[in-house]
Design a protein that fits this description.
CATH superfamily of the largest domain: FAD/NAD(P)-binding domain
Radius of gyration: 24 Å
Number of domains: 3
Structural class: alpha+beta
Strand content: 25-35%
Number of helices: 13
Number of strands: 26
Mean pLDDT: 91
Distance between the termini: 29 Å
Length: about 500
């Protein structure tokens, strides 16, 4: 029987990132997908700053920035005229190396991930589906249906369900998927067009007509339209054509559609699985949580799931941690998913609400408030921090400990880049490491050397204080660059106790 360390069900971005991260860490993976070929169309567009930060560990970030498109501004239209603009260029200045809004469509994203997986000798097995699996003493036994219709029995140490909202893995685990479905029907279309809204920026129509957003794509005259379909048309969503969508919203944005490359309709759901793990099987991405497209969070959250789980699986499989480390995956990711669904639900409901009051808020109040908000750096920074996922943290959770400066255990390490260096450079390696800003003890230096734990000591400078980092303490960083320990002392026994309590031996990595 075929055996792998991790059997991954589903070859969307979540499954591919999981496979790529595990392969980089020396884990044998097998990826199957029921489709015959990679997708050529997609709904997901945005690659958030936090995802790009983590992609540095795979050498992907620079390629995506080069191939993608950065949005300079968001423009809001009412009654056929642009009434407000929110500048987005360098909106996260000083917070991250990727202080912008990056557009890189999911289909192109998947192709890039597939290319990198091939470098590790991993190919997706197409037209192959999971029929069932059972857990046994030392792993899982799965039954697969192959392209020729034959059944294969295979074994794996762990199984990852990255198989979307209709997940076979989730149904097999009998995990509930509470939530609901919005009444609106969405459409998405890739078009070639001309007009003032085709200037490489984001444009949104706030009128009482069907909601419409125009997202620029790389290449002259290319854009992605995302809009709603209301009234009786929503009852026949499965048979709608582009000619059925509201011309009114398109005309309000003064768009001249020259060609429609692709068109599809879909409904938006908001659900979070009751559990993200059962024994040796895990749920990730849309199999674990689905929500509205507000803020471009969906694909990025699935990628975050994959990165969170990958280093933990690699540690357990490689002898660098006890299996109890895997308990933290659900604890950390389900909390974030629930917050995200709640947040995007509020934004989505405001944008798509119907009625006189909702129309007045969108058409009169929002255009008045947006320019005022954009004028304040604090407002722009808050918006960027929220959407970019750089504020995602695991504070108060089992793997998070302590506080030093303004940084808590569980936080993303603040980025500092000035004329004297970049404290994120060591993070390119997905391994446990210690950061010290200022001075440290001889004991710390000796202990880290003895245990083969990378230690990076940065000479103290004002930029570190500005970023909220503590002086002369230390930060123990996880392989996914989140802070495990924030500590004001320079005592390595703090690290020793933490690792012992959690059953982690990072120097095995």
């Amino acid at each position: 029987m075929n055996r792998s360390d991790v059997l991954i069900i589903g070859a969307g971005p979540t499954g591919l990132v999981l496979g790529l991260w595990l392969s980089k860490l020396g884990v044998r993976v097998r990826i199957i997908d029921k489709t015959s070929a990679p997708g050529t169309t997609s709904r997901a567009l945005a690659v958030q700053a936090r995802t790009l930060e983590l992609y540095r560990q795979l050498g992907l970030a620079d390629t995506i920035v080069r191939r993608g498109h950065q949005i300079a501004a968001a423009n809001f239209w009412v009654n056929g005229k642009p009434v407000a603009q929110l500048p987005l260029k360098r909106i996260g200045e000083g917070l991250t190396p990727y202080a912008f809004v990056e557009i890189f469509p999911q289909d192109e994203h998947e192709r890039l991930l597939l290319e990198r997986l091939e470098d590790y000798g991993v190919n997706v097995e197409r037209n192959t589906s999971l029929e069932s699996f059972v857990e046994n003493a030392d792993g899982l036994t799965a039954h697969l249906r192959l392209p020729d219709g034959e059944q294969e029995v295979c074994q794996a140490c762990y199984l990852a369900g990255c198989d979307g909202a209709r997940s076979v893995v989730r149904k097999t685990l009998d995990s509930g998927f509470p939530g609901g479905t919005y009444q609106q029907v969405f459409y998405v279309a890739d078009v070639r067009a001309s007009g003032p809204a085709m200037n490489g920026e984001l444009h949104l129509d706030l009128d009482e007509a069907d909601f419409l957003a125009v997202f620029p794509l790389s290449g002259e005259g290319r854009a992605r339209l995302i809009g709603t379909v209301r009234d009786e048309r929503a009852e026949r969503a499965d048979t709608l054509a582009f000619s059925d969508v509201s011309r009114r919203a398109i005309e309000h944005l003064k768009l001249h559609i020259e060609d429609v490359h692709w068109f599809s309709t879909y409904r938006v759901h908001h659900r979070v699985a009751e559990h993200f793990r059962s024994g040796r099987a895990f749920l990730l991405g849309d199999a674990a949580h689905v929500h509205s497209p507000a803020g471009g969070q969906g694909m990025n959250t699935g990628i975050g799931d994959a990165i969170n789980l990958a280093w933990k699986l690699a540690a357990v499989l490689g002898g660098g941690a006890e299996p109890k480390l895997l308990d933290s995956y659900e604890t950390e990711r389900i909390a974030f998913a629930r917050r995200l669904v709640s947040t995007t639900d509020k934004v989505f409901s405001f944008v798509t609400a119907e009625g006189r009051m909702a129309d007045m808020l969108r058409m009169r109040v929002a255009p008045f408030l947006i320019p005022k908000m954009a004028a304040f750096e604090a407002s722009r920074e808050f918006l960027f921090r929220t959407v970019s996922q750089v504020t995602l943290n695991y504070r108060g959770m089992p793997l998070s400990q302590g506080e030093a400066g303004h940084v808590h255990g569980g936080d993303r390490l603040p980025w500092v880049h000035d004329g004297e260096g970049d404290n994120y450079e060591p993070l390119r390696q997905p391994c446990w490491q210690v950061h010290v800003y200022g001075d440290t003890s001889d004991e710390m230096i000796a202990w880290c050397h003895e245990h083969h734990l990378p230690l990076h000591v940065f000479d103290w400078r004002p930029a570190f204080e500005t970023a909220g980092l503590g002086r002369n303490g230390f930060y123990l960083l996880r392989p996914d660059t989140y802070v495990a320990i924030a500590e004001n002392s320079a005592d390595p026994k703090v690290i020793e106790r933490y690792l012992r309590d959690h059953g982690i031996r990072p120097y095995f990595n």
